[in-house]
Design brief:
A: 237 residues; alpha/beta; Rossmann fold; 6-stranded mixed sheet; 4-stranded antiparallel sheet; 12 strands; B: 378 residues; 11-stranded mixed sheet; 46% strand; globular; disordered N terminus; nucleotide-binding (chain A); ATP hydrolysis activity (chain A)
Amino acid sequence: MLEISELCVDVAGKPVLSDISLTLQPGELHVLLGPNGSGKSSLLAAIMGLPPYRVTGGSIRVDGVPVNDLSLRERAALGIGMAFQRPPSLDGVTVSAFAGAMGAGATLAREAAALDLSAFVARDMNVGFSGGEIKRWEILKLFLQDPRLMLFDEPESGVDLEHVIAIGQAIGRITRTPDGQGRPRAGLVITHTGLILNHVEADRAHILKGGRIIHSGDPRAIFAHIQTHGYTVPETA
Amino acid sequence: MDDLTPQPKDTQLLGDLTNAERDMLHDVGFEDEATRAGTSILADHEMRVALSNDPGVEILPLNVALKTYDFVQSLMFGLVDPEENEHIRLVAEHMHDPLGHFIWVKPGAKVKLPVQSFSLLETPQGRQFTHDITLIDEGAEVEMVSGSAVPGNVQKGRHISIGESYMRKGARCTSVTVEHWGPEMEVYSYGYSQLDEGASSTSTAIMMSPIRHHTSRSVSTLAAGAKSASQAIVFAPEGTERVLATETRLAAAGATSQDIARMVSAGGTIVNDAVLIGDAVRTNGFLGCDGLKLRDAGEIRAVPQLRARAEGTQLSHEASVGMIDGEKLNYLMASGMDEDAARDLIVQGFLELDKGHVPADLTARIEEIVAKAKSGGM
């Protein structure tokens, strides 16, 4: 579903990602681990097409379609969706008004209850939300958008343990549920703590450091290695 | 004044409204007279309706009120000098037969249904000069809806109005004003209010229809412990110029005010010149002016002024003017919205009313009016 090949990205002329290659098959959930500043969020932004990230080399394909030259809106229409780490506040724009504009009022009623966000529908988007509320809202937003490829930017940061479980379950549920047209989805989760790995069934993990993927493998093995050795390449690799 | 016995002049229906007039007024908040505590309708150069359904409310044409109650003379031009400027002088010169209403909410009255008052200008190129006086007497409580409307064929015309509002000790008023003048009209409205000790006013102004020029000046003076909270949502499409000039004077200890203006220019010009004066100890005031520009054309000018004249007055302001935040647009577009839909959602949100300022019974109706205005229906 997602094929990234030899991708290089810069911001204002400064390279932030080099020679990234990554493939997600339909139905898969991958986790990208790395220290702060390693380029994790830059990779998601480059896939989504957010400024100011600029692809300087390599390619990104979604369902075989090259997206390098597509606008943000065109990428979303192609089926890419993103749960933001720090979304902007939208004063006056209620969750229900947003869902209405998305034509997803019925989905909102159903999924808000599942994410314990029913009381939020009348609130302005991201205004006064706690860290955990923002993360749950961002996943609810993906349910409303119904994308095929989902990008989760640090979904557990700033979330209490109780809600990390709920967020992990929600990520698992949306990833394993076919989209509105019955097609399998795929997801890419980035995390620097790795805590989310305790609550999602990831198929593969990658370590990103210094703008490069330095290792890929079994998620639990990689998480165990990072906990004792930091973001290094396991000797058995 | 408090020793005056209320007179049984609570029902006066001077004329009737046509269905077309009712439809026109409905767009700015009018409801059937039977569902309101009182109704005042001014059409062109006549008071068409001055009607009360509540013994606590008296509504009279101003020329009748002046002859009925001696004290109305002292209320008239009690808050503004008839020589203050050329427009007010012009209205004052028409006072041989004053046009406007006198609304009196009697002492202690707790009025359950809203009182409504509207102006209609139905003649193309019409000239309308009005003077309204509102007296909310000691301890009275009332909700008010007011507005202006023109038929679709009225493009040009001129309207100059003076409004003087007196809120006596402990009075409370929550009000909403919805304006819909003709797109080529010139309007100058001057509103003066005096809030006596412990009085409380919460007001909302909705100014979203196209108009060639509108100057709206309001001056409020707050006595000890009086409270004022106002919000205005203002829209200026290309060809529209709106000048808001407000002056709030916290004249005695414990007076507080909060004035919020949210302004959107889609090519038009909006000037918000707000002055907040702290004249006494333990006064507290806030000015908030936020502007959003949707196009390169047009201008938003926000000029908040704070004048602290007494030790212990706390005055503050926040002002911002800018284009739509690109981060917000990208966030919505990443969800699959096209740019126009994302912009609309952001602008509609920016102009969202603080519902806590709108009378509870009127919230749904006002939301409907604002939604229609936002969608360009006005």
